[in-house]
Q: What sequence folds into this?
């Protein structure tokens, strides 16, 4: 009987802790034995357990739902918990996501960035407060529409689309696909009483939908496979009709 | 990223609620690009009539000079068309340059991103930016000559310009740039606005990408062949450079000795 030997994986990690005085960014390589069904999550835990207890990385759910383990895997942003090592070559390079605040090693602070984005885009249902009544039943919604909203609501704010976007690397004020997807989601929702003009005010400029250069990095790296290209194109058409029609602004 | 938009400058208050310019500029960039790409698609095919024969190319030249409508040639029509295209070209360049990296830092961030991510469509945009930049110069030279010397178009006149007047290196570069830029541009335009996306946009994108590459190579093939044909004609005609073409059935009967 032929006994298959497991691969030895060489995992190089960009190590740097900005909070440690004098620390300098460097690549460190760890060699571990691959196990059947191994994910990068398991591999990183193996490294922390057997090689270097100081390695920083984020995990919560291990099932591609929480979005905390996004990192750059061999140049591409992806979720470490959903990445099987057998689908990667024997030499793997890991780096933290760009754009976001670096906590240390592979750990980045996506939370405060996403919070800022949600506040900037007011990513919540807007209702007339005077009309709001807790005792009323919610209006029923067509199942197709509910599905469509749910499809976009699957975004886990992992930051992969931001890391995969060439535009945002150059122009940090660009809202990115995560932001545009949110607007597409609320714009679909009949409970949100904001007008198209309100949405235009949020994303109708070059930091918003008209800043998107259609590089499609977001579409191709999104671990949830969200229809980002299609939704951004939809918003672009929608915002164009408002920008062409409305004459109330000064035009500058 | 700065999400904080509370701190507005005085301009933001004076300008009121929303500005329509970003929407209009984006649309105008796409529209001028679309018109230019369609123009180029037709232009290169008409140009390639030289592959069929000198007579065919001469017929196309006379068609655009209005010969078949007015009974004589008016190269001024070509000058006018070239000027109109030049204006569109300048407008498109002005709008598109907004997307270029505006500092070394931005350039470096983009390049490093592109090299690491190895993502096809990111690279396609970069090719468009590079070819667009090159065409600021290459395209301007070509358009200016077409505007000012529109009567020098024809099987011999064009071939002489290309071969004897040393325009071929410029045309070769311009040809490659314009085909890359237009083919990639049309593909990206379709995705940018979601045109032709159908019920399954992800599948449709693969098809559009394939179509883009086919168009790109077919046009490159045809155009290089036609440039080659002009080169050969120009070479053969180099000792009589400047002499004009006469249709084979309009040539005066040779005098028998």
A:
């Amino acid at each position: 009987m032929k006994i298959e030997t497991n691969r030895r994986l060489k995992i190089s990690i960009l190590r740097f802790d900005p909070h440690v005085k004098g620390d300098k960014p460097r690549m460190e390589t760890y060699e571990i034995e691959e196990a059947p069904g191994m994910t990068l999550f398991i591999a990183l835990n193996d490294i922390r357990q057997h090689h270097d207890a100081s390695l920083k990385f984020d995990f919560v759910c291990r099932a591609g739902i929480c979005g905390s383990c996004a990192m750059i895997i061999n140049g591409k942003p992806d979720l470490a918990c959903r990445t099987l090592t057998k689908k990667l070559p024997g030499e793997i390079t890991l780096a933290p996501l760009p754009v976001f605040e670096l906590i240390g090693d592979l750990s980045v602070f996506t939370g405060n960035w996403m919070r800022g984005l949600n506040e900037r885009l007011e990513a919540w249902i807007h209702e007339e407060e005077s009309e709001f009544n807790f005792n009323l039943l919610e209006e029923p919604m067509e199942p197709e529409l509910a599905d469509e909203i749910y499809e976009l609501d699957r975004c886990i704010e992992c930051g992969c689309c931001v890391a995969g976007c060439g535009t945002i690397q150059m122009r940090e004020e660009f809202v990115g696909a995560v932001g545009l997807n949110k607007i597409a989601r609320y714009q679909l929702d009949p409970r949100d009483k904001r007008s198209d003009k309100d949405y235009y005010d949020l994303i109708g400029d070059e930091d918003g939908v008209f800043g998107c250069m259609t590089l499609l990095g977001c579409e191709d790296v999104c671990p949830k496979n969200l229809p980002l290209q299609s939704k951004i194109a939809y918003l672009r058409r929608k915002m164009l009709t408002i920008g062409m029609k409305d004459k109330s602004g000064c035009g500058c | 990223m700065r999400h904080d938009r509370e701190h507005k400058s005085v301009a933001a208050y004076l300008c009121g609620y929303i500005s329509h310019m970003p929407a209009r500029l984006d649309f105008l960039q796409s529209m001028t690009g679309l018109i230019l790409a369609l123009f180029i698609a037709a232009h290169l095919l008409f140009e390639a009539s030289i592959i069929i024969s000198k007579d065919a190319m001469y017929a196309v030249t006379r068609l655009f000079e209005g010969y078949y409508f007015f009974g004589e040639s008016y190269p001024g029509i070509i000058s006018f068309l070239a000027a109109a295209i030049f204006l569109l070209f300048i407008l498109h360049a002005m709008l598109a340059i907004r997307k270029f990296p505006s500092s070394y830092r931005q350039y470096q961030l983009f390049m490093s991103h592109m090299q690491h991510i190895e993502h096809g469509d990111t690279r396609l945009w970069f090719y468009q930016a590079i070819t667009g930049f090159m065409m600021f110069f290459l395209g301007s030279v070509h358009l200016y000559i077409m505007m000012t010397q529109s009567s020098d178009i024809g099987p011999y006149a064009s071939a002489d310009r290309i071969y004897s007047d040393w325009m071929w290196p410029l045309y070769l570069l311009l040809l490659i740039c314009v085909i890359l830029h237009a083919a990639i541009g049309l593909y990206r335009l379709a995705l940018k606005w979601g045109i032709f996306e159908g019920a399954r946009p992800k599948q449709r994108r693969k098809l559009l990408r394939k179509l883009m590459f086919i168009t790109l190579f077919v046009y490159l093939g045809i155009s290089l062949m036609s440039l080659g044909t002009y080169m050969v004609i120009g070479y053969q005609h180099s000792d009589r450079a400047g002499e004009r073409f006469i249709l084979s059935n309009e040539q005066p009967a040779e005098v028998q000795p």
Observations:
- The mean pLDDT of chain B is 92.
- Chain B has one domain: 24-239.
